[in-house]
Please model this.
Amino acid sequence: MTHLLRRWLAVSVVAGSLLTGGPWGDIPVASAQEQSLYIAFASGDGEPVTDMTADDVVVEWDGVACEIVELEPVNWPARVTVYVDNATESQAAIPDMREGLRLFLNALPPDIEVAIATLAGRPQYRVRHTTDRQELLDAIGVLASEGAAATFFDALYEEAERLEDDRERQYLSAVVMVATAGSEGSRRARGDAVQRTMDRLYDNAATVYTLLFTSPYGVGRNLGRAQAQWGGDIAAATRARYEEMVVSTRFRTLLPEVAADIARRHRLTSHQYRVTYRPPDDASDQPRIQVGSARTGIAAMPTDNGNIP
Model:
């Protein structure tokens, strides 16, 4: 996990000053080649700045200015996949999950596509990605416990594979795991599958939020330990959020909070830039990279994959 956490550049840079954001750990760099990164710019009130030019952007390696080769607008809206645990141990929590998901949808901008999937027995979509809120609400309204064990990890594995295969992806995936700490029936969680899944989620700029109801099957027992470990680690690696709760009514408050965070990211990732720059010829291979703007009153949020924290 540690190497993943080192791989992103997350600094808030106020125009007129440059804050050190590097080195970038194991991101390969070569001073003789062009490099690229993503930057979202925001005004003082947090709104995206959409009229940036190449002259407004500053990238330095070890204090030496880089040539800005290209500044390309990138419109990557959020696309949300919600996985709902409808396995055996979820029965008592399902009513709170349903209500929390209704509030979640209400808190999302209407133009964000959402899918609803379930985890009992195997991951399966109930509604594919759509902006049709009524179709989504109808699917939420009939959610019920269907027995069997949950397939928490298999859902993440399959989601990571889909993202890897989507070569024309022009969105940022937000995955929301609405889960109960119970029996885990995933078949893919062996060998290097966990690291493979985490790498692919990171490389494809996904964020994974996990809300885990741990009572009465809490993580202090065997049940739920795996979901808690995966949920916490993957949330950290993908710059998202992991929350445990001991009362299921917390789904009603936590899910709207997650929606608000997705909406915030959506505003920025829909109006960010891909910056291509050329490092100095004599720059080191492990530089201190500094990113900023020549314009005043603007915050810069640079990342290596477009997934803004």
